[in-house]
Amino acid sequence: MKKEKAEKDTIDREYVLNSKMTGYTGVGGDIDGVRNPVLRAKKGERVKITLINGELMAHDIVMEKLGLRSEPVVEEGDTAVIEFEALEDDVYFCSIPGHRQMMNGRFEIVESFEKTISDVGYSPRKNGKPLNLGFERASLADWKAEGSAFSAKSVAFDPAPWYPDSMELKQSGDYYVTSGGTNNYVATGVLTSETFEIAAPWASFKVTGGALEGTRVELVLAGQDTAFFEISGPVNVGHIAGKTQGVFRPVVVNLEPYMGKEMFIRLVDEETGKVPEIHYIGDNKWSHISFDDFRFHKERPEYVRELSPADIIILPERDVVEHAGLSGEEAVKAMTLPEGFSISLAASEPEITKPIAMAMDDRGRLWVVESHTYPVRAEEGKGGDQILIFEDTDGNGSLDSRKLFIDGLNLVSGIEVGFGGVWVGAAPYFMYIPIDETGDAPAGEPQILLDGFGYEDTHETMNTFKWGPDGWLYGTHGVFTHSRVGKPGTPDEERVGLNAGVWRYHPTRHEFEVFAHGTSNPWGIDFNDYGHTFVTVCVIPHLFHMIQGGRYFRQGGKHFNPYTYDDIETIADHVHWLGDSGPHAGNFRSAAAGGGHAHAGAMFYLGNEHWGLDRNSIFMNNIHGHRVNQDKISRSGSGYTASHGEDFILTNDSWSLWLNFQIAPSGSIFVHDWYDQNQCHNPNPDVHNKTLGRIYKISHKEDKWVKVDLSKKTDLELVELQLHENEWYVRHARRLLQERKAGGEVHQALWKILNENPDVTRKLRALWALHVTGGISEQQFLELLDNKDEYVRSWAIQLMAEDKKVPAGAVARLEQMAANDESALVRLYIASAVQRMDPAQCWTILENLCSHEEDFEDHNLPLIVWYALEPMVELDAQRAIDIAKEAALPNLLTYTVQRLGATEDKSAAMTILNKTRQELQAQDDLREDQAAAIAVIEQIASGGE
């Protein structure tokens, strides 16, 4: 933890904050229950802020101007502390990606803590009499009610009957008015006051209730309908915690621009709080508005718990989804597609039910898993899942041929076809099922290649299998399922730990490894035109560019490597949900942002040019939004950024649950639909309708059906297909060349493409095909490192380091490239490759990578370089410190100091750390990171973490 050195031991002012994605919530004192409260201190006071994690998700707290940052808290109940001297106004916030929008507040320097209200205020009057705007007449006198929400009984004294008896409301006086409280939240209506003259420059009132667009207080000028001021209730919808959540909060309004005009107050409750029958989201009991004590003031009043519209992120009205529970034919008619596109029902129940995964073979046939066992794994040998083979035999869009390949499988969640068989994920097993000569039936029993895959959370098991450009089979894995993977019989200490991220398996070498760690529950993976890996995820920001050896922001839990210290953020500049109460609260209210937090499937449409789609856009299914989102990908530094594009398809059906895509030989797309009223995982089998399921085909009007069988193509014909516009041909042809171990004239033809084709994406296709067929010699790899294109150079580095034995002749060249290559992408691939190299080869490479000041703010490089440098600290701490002291990248010195402080030999570590501190303190002008490193050394020396 970065922490300023205390100049005195006394803490003058202490605050405690509870952290959730909904915001920081004050604990105790005047800030109790306040979201993102204003923290105050007198100038020069020593301030201590304690952070308590309120959920299983990473949070921290940062003081912006001070540059002070706490350690992250990850587990629920974890705490962290920052201390500092109060010198100026500041802002505190959470630096975890995507959190600052909800988690930020102000720190203010004040002269005094005495509560002063310069003007206690008075009630507006009409015809010489005070109006009943504080409801102390115990009636709705001076108000007009419409709808069912407001009646004489709405004017209340005690919390009951509108709130639980234990609720503290803290209204002014005895009475207040409510549109139903938490006990009658379904009621809706409008309550409008008499008009009255604005006779003072300031007004105040109290409000509580939900932060919803349909529950609000409006101040309106007479003769107009649009409010000049409005505010909703302060309560965080969907995450209600703390005894003060329902307490009235004071609001102050500047009326000076409207002095002398007539106005009225309008209380609006358009929210029923009812939600669809979704098990994990209950009715919203805060879908009401409660109001009290409108008063005029001659001077601006000051309140400790004052609420302003800027404090509230309001959830919009519920999304309107026109349809639910449709037949397959009706569902097709309900969808909205771009002009020139059509969708057809390729298969539906009872021919297909609960399709959880699918793959396509070299004949364009769909291999589809029916998941009858989910959500509870059956007893061994009693699984009910099966694999079906579907085919459109006549081109009419219908999958008219249906064959059962195998049944009796258990909890299947992933499938791919190739190398003479079917690759199946069925936790705890990763299996291979050989296909017989007919191509329609197994040639033997399933072979268990790996075991140890977890299934504690059965919707986060291994999934979304896809052949990568490098010849490995890739898949994803969720964060709350814990796996220890190895070949059957492997002892636990030799197994590979995995609980979030991307893994891969080599089909001929039978090697398993984690490609990158982190994210949440990824259920979509694809590779762009340049072979770069992207995953789509749920709950946290939805899109990540995954780099080999990278560690990414996690939904919960800790990285396996405790010295990670920080992880790589999403590339998306947006989320697909609205609201301040976490992603679940935004579901069914987020159409304007993209639909909601849950995503499944990932596809770069690398098919027919006549589709007119941007090949740099990635498409994903938004489950709660009932649509296909599109994110536009752009290069930035060593990686990418992603902005929200126009949604591609709207299903307009709340039961639609599209899971993934397959591009067909025609360029059309098949999608499979889980189709269920239940929108999310539930371990109770009874909430899932196991009789429904669909497969749709999305086509452009210029698509033409073709009947193919790539297995009948010659090797050179498969090489020619590397130039095809439709990536389906490219990927299948490359895998077939890999299966055949093609060489000779195949390699000559591929080298011709690599050397002569002007399109770098075609060069890369040739490079990948050469690699999977063993067509690149050590000398050729060295020559590729000098290629003029950054994509070719970077891929040459990754492929050369694949077997973790970089040729000795390449080390000097990598050292030069680390120092001089102008491409941040190339430097990224070098940093990634270092993690797979003999450590003795890496010192100069790392030193050169650390020298690039231009990479200081790069999205990936500072952390990828740290992941490469970190294990070197144990090998030669002094050399690692020497590199970090001169590094131009952020945090490397501080992280290296922290890592050295965590070594077992504390005495040797402190000798190096004390020497480092002395050397740094002797410098005339310390950089910020060097000053931070000194503070960390002092903390370690004092016995701190």
Structure description:
With 945 residues, the protein is of the alpha+beta class. Helices cover 18% and strands 28% of the residues. Helix 14 (877-886) packs antiparallel against helix 15 (892-901). It starts with 12 loop residues before the first strand and ends with a helix. Residues 1-8 and 237-243 have low confidence and may be disordered.
Task: Tell me the layout of helices and strands.
Blueprint: E1 13-20, E2 23-26, E3 39-41, E4 46-53, E5 62-63, E6 68-69, E7 79-85, E8 90-93, E9 104-109, E10 125-126, E11 129-130, E12 143-147, E13 155-156, E14 176-178, E15 189-193, E16 196-197, E17 202-209, E18 215-221, E19 227-232, E20 249-254, E21 262-269, E22 289-297, H1 328-334, E23 341-348, E24 355-360, E25 366-370, E26 385-391, E27 401-409, E28 412-418, E29 421-426, E30 429-434, E31 447-450, E32 463-467, E33 473-477, E34 483-485, E35 496-498, E36 501-505, E37 512-519, E38 524-527, E39 533-536, E40 543-546, E41 551-554, H2 582-586, E42 599-604, E43 617-622, E44 627-636, E45 639-644, E46 649-650, E47 658-663, E48 669-673, E49 694-700, H3 715-720, H4 727-740, H5 745-756, H6 760-772, H7 778-784, H8 790-800, H9 808-820, H10 824-834, H11 843-849, H12 861-869, H13 872-875, H14 877-886, H15 892-901, H16 906-921, H17 928-941
Helix pairs in contact: 4-6, 5-6, 6-8, 7-8, 8-10, 9-11, 10-12, 14-15, 15-17, 16-17
